Fold:
Amino acid sequence: MPYDAELAERVRSALSGRDAVREIKMFGGLAFMLEERMVVCVSAGGAALLVRVSPDRDAELLTEPGAQRAEMGQGRSMGEGWITVDQDVVDSDDELRHWIDAALAFHAEGSGRNPGTKRKQATKKPA
Structure:
């Protein structure tokens, strides 16, 4: 089953106006990357949306209707900060925005960056 093209368009619209947004097929769906880090993914089958949120907010967000721990295959939890959200929850633009905002807040904290790797910095060539 392919990802929901209408939901992908709604996510695309919600992220419009941001620089460095890129779409890539990932996790069997369409992931929206911001500065090369996944923010949300419109899933194919099952839950509608996969979001990357702060582990500090994980327990709180999992209590919301339609939210559950994301799994990478049957019974293989993706861990704290990875949440799937059911389709009927994101039918409302306000609810979709809520989940995108939660993911963007974590992204703003530097989420998804491996602390052991340094970002490439531009180097000046000798004159």
